[in-house]
Amino acid sequence: MSDGSKPRPDGQILDHCYDGIQEYDNPLPGWWSAFFIITIVFSGFYLFWYHLGGPGKSVTEVYAADYQAYEKQRVEREAADLSSVSEASIASAAGNADMLATGKTIFTSTCATCHQPDGSGLIGPNLTDGNQLHGTTRMDIYATVRNGVPNTAMVPWGAQLKPAEVIAVSAYVVTLRNKPLPGKAAEGAPVGPFAAP
Ligand code: HEC
Q: What separation, in Å, do the N-terminal and C-terminal C-alpha atoms of the chain show?
């Protein structure tokens, strides 16, 4: 702060006067101007690097590339899952006590609201009779559980459960069939026991 009356030796008083307040015409500090010029130069490089054909990838491009890689892996993984599941592998899971215990736990927590804890049917069909709405085989049951039935309350559980869980719960459903419990009336075609795998 100067005394307010005399011009400072390093600055000239500007012409304007607002409510008696006058300003010195001091230059900007050198470091400030230098930094300002650096930001302008930097923005030119930035614009070229990311937006005008430079090698830099924008956030959107990085996301698109990552997403594509993820999609590719997902499709490959799903194909691998499907090719490793067969009529025989589900039949063998249906004879494996550990698998069935896992399947029963999942059935009780996830499926019982619609199919009843004993599978005798409520919103969803009775799974204990000898009838089937979709197909006839163990793989058909697996496919229905995994992919759901479009436009019904039966959603694709493959999107929510792990591949091994879908197999376990499907195997458990396989063991319920042909031991009819009183419950929802049979739906679909009578298919009887599963064929030997
Ligand atoms: C929100 C209700 C609901 C839940 C939860 C549900 N389902 Fe279903 N499910 C249905 C309905 C409704 C159908 C009949 C779809 C149709 O009309 O074809 C069905 C059909 C099925 C079928 C086909 C039966 C056949 O005769 O072909 C199987 C198998 C099945 N569910 C198993 C399961 C399993 C396993 C789970 C748990 C992972 C499950 N469901 C969870 C409602 C449900």
A: 96
Instruction: Indicate whether residue 43 lines ligand 1 (CB < 6 A).
Output: no
Tell me if 132 CB under 6 Å of ligand 1: yes
Residue of minimum CA distance from atom 2 in ligand 1: 114
Question: Measured between alpha carbons, how far is 17 from 152 in angstroms, rounded to an integer?
Answer: 79
* Domain span including residue 41: 9-56
Indicate if 50 and 139 belong to the same structural domain.
Answer: no
Whether residue 125 has its Cβ less than 6 Å from ligand 1: yes
Of ligand 1's atoms, which has the minimum distance to the CA of residue 110? 37
Task: Kindly tell me if the per-residue pLDDT of 147 is higher than 80.
Answer: yes
The structure's pTM equals 0.69
Query: Under a CB-based contact definition with an 8 Å cutoff, are residues 179 and 127 in contact?
Result: no
Q: pLDDT class for 10, splitting at 50, 70, 90?
A: low
